[in-house]
Design brief:
Structural class: mainly beta
Number of strands: 18
Largest sheet: 7 strands, mixed
């Protein structure tokens, strides 16, 4: 499969839309009462990549990164099972002739890396993982590195608003400054919302939700209400008329 073109860059928030409304009230969810976040160093081991799965590829300084999926607990007698469940996320980090891995297969079997955000200024890397076979989960699992991929830390799970909806909103953009302050943006078509939540907007409008962080993704604060795009294509408006 071709290299995934969806890799985003930190410090670039490119919604490209005029947003209406918005709400300054937020709900905080953090790591209080939970176990300390997991941390992981790179390992030297050989892992066979599953070529049929999507991947991300980028570089920083003298290092090259490949975020993909490695074989995991393969059952030789059951190729159908292997295709669905016999893999998990892996990050290959190569510098010169030395290659090491961040192996997350045991932590997240049959989950895939949905988004990779990499800083253009300091090499920070963020991975957002979700379920593969069973469809979208209600949250993203977050792993990050702030030393150019040498060590990795598990962040707080990033909830996908609105709560209880299916499908939930999808992550579209992630902005973070060098102090670790920023926001993740999610998008959901207004047609997925109940009429009161759409606030009278047409079904083809888009709702954007925001989750803010002040500590680089270790905790998140969620806006209670979405903001809506005010940019409507004239041909769509003409086609759909006054449909609400």
């Amino acid at each position: 499969m071709a290299e995934n073109d969806g890799m985003k860059k930190l410090f670039v928030l490119s919604l490209g839309l005029v947003l209406l409304g918005g709400c300054s009230h937020s709900v905080s969810r953090d790591l209080a009462g939970q176990a300390q976040p997991s941390s992981r160093a790179l390992e030297t081991k050989k892992i066979t990549e599953v070529k049929s799965q999507p991947y991300f590829q980028f570089s920083w300084a003298k290092r090259s990164f490949r975020v993909a999926h490695g074989q995991w607990k393969i059952k030789e007698e059951n190729p159908g099972w292997n295709k669905m469940y016999g893999w998990g996320p892996v990050v290959w980090v190569t510098e010169g002739k030395r290659s090491r891995v961040l192996d997350l297969r045991q932590d997240f079997p049959s989950k895939y890396v949905a988004h990779v955000f990499q800083s253009e200024s300091n090499g920070w890397i963020y991975l957002f993982l979700e379920h593969g076979i069973a469809g979208p989960e209600s949250q993203y699992h977050v792993w990050m590195s702030k030393d150019q991929g040498e060590t990795w830390l598990e962040g707080a799970k990033l909830q996908r608003p609105p709560e209880g909806s299916f499908p939930p909103a999808s992550l579209t953009d992630f902005f973070l400054d060098e102090k670790g302050q920023g926001a993740a943006w999610f998008k959901l078509e207004a047609s997925s919302l109940a009429p009161p939540e759409r606030k009278g907007l047409p079904l083809w409008a888009e709702a954007y939700y925001r989750a803010r962080t002040r500590d680089g993704g270790l905790t998140w604060e969620y806006d209670k209400e979405p903001q809506f795009s005010s940019v409507l294509q004239p041909e769509m408006e003409k086609h759909h008329g006054a449909q609400k």
